[in-house]
Input
Amino acid sequence: MGEPVRIGHDKFNIGEGETARRELRVVKVSDDVIQVQEEVHGIIALVGASSSVNIKKEELRNLIRVAREEFGWTDICE
Output
């Protein structure tokens, strides 16, 4: 896999005086597979059977841009 490209980041309050930090990254796994990674710091994570990534509209735009410009997926449209 290649080096991850950050496509989004933010901070949010999770409790009294506690802030969490979130970062969204994308990495090229192979010529036609990318992986979106969401990393959250400041929250105690529970292990479960499913996983999800929250993506904002601007982050999706960045994901499309990275897929086209950095990964060569020129057939992706905005």
